[in-house]
Amino acid sequence: MELFAVNIIDGLVTGLLLFMLSSGLTLIFSMMGVLNFAHASFYMIGAYFGYTIALYVGFWPALIIAPLMVGLFGAFVERYGLRRVHQYGHVPELIFTFGLAILIEEIVQFIWGKNQMPFSTPEVLDFAAFSIAAFDIQAYKIFMIFISIAIFGGLLLVLTRTRVGLIIQAALSHPRTVEALGHNVPLVFMGVFGVGAGLAGVAGVIAGPVLGTFPGMAVVLGSIVFVTIVIGGLGSLWGALVASLLIGWVTTFAATYNLEMASLLTAIGLSPPDDMSESLLRDAWTLSLPQVGPILPYLLMVLVLVFRPYGLFGKRGT
Amino acid sequence: MTYFASTGTRGAAAKTDLLKTAMPWIVAAIVLMILPQVFGQSSSITIMNQMWITVVFALAYNMLLGQGGMLSFGHAVYMGLGGFFVMHLMNYIEIYDLPVPLPVLPIFGGLAGMFFAALIGLFQTRSAGTSFAMITLGVGELIAACSVIITAFFGGEEGISGDRTMGLPFFGVEFLHQDEVYYLIAFWMFISVLGMYLFSRTPLGRMANAVRDNPERAEFLGYSARWVRYGSFVASGFFCGIAGALFAVNYEILTEENLNLVTSGTILLVAFLGGVGFFAGPIVGAVLFTLLQTVMSLHTEIWALYLGALFVAVVMFFPQGLTGLIAMHAGPFKLRTMHKLAVPYCKTILPAIISILAVMFMMEVMFHVREATAGDDMMSVMGTEFSSHSPIAWILGTAVAVGGFMIARRNAPALRQSWHEANTPGGGK
Description:
The complex is a heterodimer of chains A (318) and B (429).
Chain A: H1 2-32, H2 39-57, H3 59-86, H4 90-112, E1 128-132, E2 135-138, H5 139-161, H6 163-173, H7 175-180, H8 185-211, H9 217-232, H10 237-256, H11 261-267, H12 282-286, H13 289-292, H14 296-307
Antiparallel strand pairs in A: 1-2
Chain B: H1 2-38, H2 42-68, H3 76-96, H4 105-124, H5 129-149, H6 151-154, E1 160-161, H7 178-201, H8 203-213, H9 215-220, H10 225-251, E2 253-254, H11 261-274, H12 281-299, H13 303-317, H14 321-327, H15 330-334, H16 338-371, E3 378-381, E4 384-387, H17 391-422
Antiparallel strand pairs in B: 1-2, 3-4
Helix pairs in contact in B: 1-7, 2-7, 2-10, 2-11, 2-12, 3-4, 3-10, 4-10, 7-10, 8-10, 11-12, 11-14, 16-17
């Protein structure tokens, strides 16, 4: 039971982190019809910027400055890269962001090298906030949960309660009409892209110390983020939230509960083969849940696609 | 009389037409046969083997991207699965002494690739565009992740390996040497390229183009866009499987790397570099990419950075790829106005190239400053030794880079003007 509670918290942290990325991605997608392959790269840049800035001015200013820089960089990419490629159609746009993701990874390796950066949590938060039975819950985790919820509260408020949010929402569905009313829609696009990149940057700064700051971090999280928004339904913010939390919990629980395939197979009346090393089915007997854990999101995605091709919350035809 | 005469000339015309169509293929076959005689070193044979495998894979990939308008991020899976299947087959042949010669194995690889493509394509080809890309990415990652877990088939982390020489000798050839393998790969490459070309001429291949350009219209004509896509997907899987089989024969080892996103992304890069709009584009891309990769990785450690930058530049400025760039010149060539372009080209492109080279030089210097052990200041570029910490190198590099860029930028409008003139009949005056 205690382990269950700990896993709930851990899964929540992972899920909210995923949501920081997937929300920006899904917002950009519903606006421009572009799936930004480089989104996880912005997350990586955020972590690296955060690390470098934290070296000079400390963690807290870095938490503000690094995402701003990443956001500016994202806006720059939209203005001078994506907008140029836009005229060729959606597939070249997707290929452009894919190329950008490769390029960013190479540039990061060029600047910071291939090794993991010693980016650590700030000392203020380096204590156990409380403990459930024998499990200490780090204060940093609680901080991560609160900061992600706070950012989303703010974002939701801006989107639904302000004039800017109104224009963004209108530009999502009727860009032409909004343009005819005298608003600068390309500027709105650039802004949304920048904010999405900035959000990814925030996620990078707060996740960098926990998940590690290394050149492969974009690839590790990148495909999971895509899986998330496909499961949630492309373009659906609520879908992104539900799918993020779902994946967060599924992977966390799978990693801690050591269910073995062998016990399941014996339970249904099968007996293990005599010579394990020769049998073609040996993998079925040695599999365990923590081993399968990393592929569960992909499996979930395939199932969703087979039974509900538009994702959990997606609308037909998006 | 006239009747006979006309059919006679028509027959002759058909014959010359056929000869004209067959000519490039005959030339290609002869070139393929002569190449190992010209470049006999084992290193160049290794490069050529890699090149031809990439050609098959890139063309098979382009059956989707270029011909069918489907952007796949998980295509390494079909090549990899074909390869794994053939590797197992090779091991079975060795264990049970089956009378199967090596040269027929690629067909089994193709069938394996086709089988998996037929299975996965069932739900994957439901849509094109962005959702197709996402689904291929997810499925690709799923299978790549599975490969580490299912050790019986994929061999886990270290992959599976085999020995190509243990099969039945094929007319006395045991495929011990690289050049023997070369001919096997070249033969299968030729057959596959021909097959893919012929596929693009079939009604299905033509419909794939129609569905790419306008799926709605194709549906109104009575074709199911989904099943046309499915057809291309399965055919592409077959040729990917052949590429995988050739990979297995050539390298005798397959790992998780053959299935993952990096391989899928690389082949996208290759196809795009050559140009997806033309049948020959991926061939050009594969040859160019393999050469670039080999030459650059010999000389610099940051070659992947250059390739990434090249890729992004191609997508941004030449989305038609290299073959598209060449095809752009068909107009001036026919109008015989190519000479008008020569001088503006030299004035703009030469400074641009010099500027790019200078930027690359600066990158190398910076990389050296950061990576080299302390005290080791000397580096060499193109045989010239100098200190990477000396301000002269930095100033010179920056000056050349900025200067070249400025000149190219200043001359660009003139180039645009002459391009316009060269493309207008009568000189555009």
